[in-house]
Amino acid sequence: MYSPSAAANSSNTTEFGSRMFVYEVVGLRQNETTDKLDYPIRQSGSVFITVSYSRMNQEMQRINRMGGKIVSIQPLTANNGANGKATLKTQAKAEPAAAPQQTPSENKSKPMTQAHAKTDIPVNIYRPNAPLIGKCIENYELVAEGGIGTVRHITFDTSDSDLRYLEGQSIGIIPPGTDDKGKPHKLRLYSIASTRHGDKLDDKTVSLCVRQLEYKHPETGETVYGVCSTYLCNLPVDSDVKITGPVGKEMLLPDDEESTVIMMATGTGIAPFRAYLWRMFKEQHEDYKFKGFAWLIFGIPYTANILYKEQLEELQEKFPNNFRLTYAISREQKNPEGGRMYIQHRVAEHAEELWNLMQKPNTHTYICGLKGMEDGIDAALSAQAEKQGASWSQYQKQMKREGRWHVETY
């Protein structure tokens, strides 16, 4: 997927990077190890632990190993103390940041999880002035007979390099030649469609899902083809290619192996979600064993345009309790009003279930694809929030603050 906005986002960092949070924990075992911890304990058995954002996941795992449960997570402020020294009076005022209609049992069942510790993210290992020279080792068509357009799955050998990347990041491609001003072409960014270990599981490849850009010139009516997408779609095997990156921090997969991951994609927006799903279900790598729930809602024009169709449906068949696949096939299916079925209609159809899943503090929601698709999704979820007496815009802002709402559109 080509991602022009990723370049602007590549150097951004979130507000959470330098923030501190206070965990209220109950049920910690009192033994030789925990007795040595210098945390005050209330009569109720609560422990208050101050944690930096970058260590939230590690601290959650430590608490789980010690038999504890996280009751609430609060940003550290002057009012709720530091180093776990919250008082009874202060804590009574600091209500947990629960979503509307969320029950106490839901609050306690899962800790809030963020997408990834920001210090672990590889960024700009290769830059435009010194790109990685990769080699194309496969380039095949993804659109079946009867579909529209051309979309290619392209894999590059990066074995003679230091390239590292994470699911949800992008790489840059520098097409050869010059533009109409005689200057070298600028790089284009594409979402990575493979896991960090690559399609060959040897840490030596990176893959893309590329649609050839094609449009009519507004003045001449002439058909115009995208420079870089055409270059990539026609790239012969064994060809060298200039690669930069990786970049991007917005679309990272959460570290929590029990998280709920909601994915909404159109067209080549499937690229990062293929990487997520392959990591969750195909790899079962020793450092990541997914045990949560993933739901992909995928918008395409025709059945023949369902990218990676066989593999996706195989995953749904093999993991029915952990993976759900929903299509919105615009030119073959009808929405309730009799018009074309787009992704926002599927979201509206399942709005209550999606809303309930989003109340879980370890649910991450991702949107990837054509710019503008967010509007219909927002409208569908706004209607559901109103039924619950809540404000979708306010809850969406809360999810953004918690690092659980991720959008990459182009």
Outline:
The protein has 410 residues and is of the alpha/beta class. 25% of the residues lie in helices and 25% in strands. It folds into three domains: 5-11 and 121-247, Elongation Factor Tu (Ef-tu), domain 3 (Beta Barrel), CATH 2.40.30.10; 20-112, no CATH class; 260-409, 3-Layer(aba) Sandwich (Rossmann fold).
Write up this protein.
- This protein is an alpha/beta fold and 410 residues long.
- The protein has 3 domains: 5-11 and 121-247, Translation factors (Elongation Factor Tu (Ef-tu), domain 3); 20-112, no CATH class; 260-409, Nucleotide-binding domain of ferredoxin-NADP reductase (FNR) module (Rossmann fold, 3-Layer(aba) Sandwich), CATH 3.40.50.
- Helix content is 25%, strand content 25%.
- The protein has 12 helices and 16 strands.
- A 6-stranded antiparallel beta sheet has the order 7-6-11-4-5-8.
- The chain is globular and about 65 Å long.
- Residues 5-18, 29-44 and 78-114 have low confidence and may be disordered.
Query: What structural class do you assign from the helix and strand content?
Result: alpha/beta
Poorly predicted regions: 5-18, 29-44, 78-114
Helix content: 10-25%
What CATH architecture label of the largest domain applies? 3-Layer(aba) Sandwich
- Largest sheet data: 6 strands, antiparallel
Q: Which helices and strands occur, and which strands form pairs?
A:
Layout: H1 5-9, E1 20-26, H2 32-35, E2 47-52, H3 56-65, E3 69-75, H4 88-93, H5 104-109, E4 132-141, E5 151-157, E6 170-174, E7 188-191, E8 205-211, E9 214-216, E10 223-225, H6 227-233, E11 240-247, E12 260-266, H7 270-283, E13 293-300, H8 309-318, E14 323-329, H9 343-349, H10 351-358, E15 363-369, H11 373-387, H12 392-401, E16 405-409
Parallel strand pairs: 12-13, 12-15, 13-14, 15-16
Antiparallel strand pairs: 1-2, 1-3, 4-5, 4-11, 5-8, 6-7, 6-11, 9-10
Helix pairs in contact: 9-11, 10-11
